[in-house]
Fold:
Amino acid sequence: MDYRFTSKDEMDTLELAQNIESEKFPNMVICLNGELGTGKTVFVKGFAQALGIEETITSPTFTIVKEYDTGELPLFHMDVYRLEEHKDNIGIKDYFTKGGITIIEWADMIENDLPDERLDIEFRFVDENTRVLIFKPHGKIYEDVCNSVL
Ligand SMILES: Nc1ncnc2c1ncn2[C@@H]1O[C@H](COP(=O)(O)OP(=O)(O)OP(=O)(O)O)[C@@H](O)[C@H]1O
Ligand SMILES: [Mg+2]
Structure:
């Protein structure tokens, strides 16, 4: 089953991310897809804040993975938009089992490397401040997360 959430502004997306964070568990994987500027990084900011990470979250476009270790669980923030240029996605899968939370922007670009069990969230632009988020949980544990939050 898919779930749908309408975000009326940036704050809505931040709050939603915080609510999902409250259902976190080690090795959670969240895959974010959607056009440029639809709020994927905003989501990561909300999640990171809820984890207790005080550093500023910036898009890791040129580094692929940014690791934050000051929160309740480690956060691995990936943006794989430019990965093809690097032609080096060796090592990405290792992060899924390090006991932290992995959140991947543009995850569809590494579809074959994603774990079977994960939460996909697609961000759709509606108008300047409105986004529709479509949640697709893969696996019971992620279905439970969606049931609790949405
Ligand atoms: N409802 C909303 N939810 C999230 N962001 C919103 C919303 N309405 C407006 N915005 C704005 O949209 C922009 C989203 O930028 P963000 O960097 O999160 O996009 P992105 O999806 O990560 O893009 P990219 O693919 O370039 O990484 C921000 O400037 C934010 O203020
Ligand atoms: Mg981004």
Observations:
- Residues 40-41, 59, 79, 105 surround magnesium ion (ligand 2) (CB under 6 Å).
- The two ends are 12 Å apart (CA to CA).
- The beta strands are 3-7, 28-34, 65-68, 75-79, 101-105, 118-127, 130-138.
- The first helix runs from residue 10 to 21.
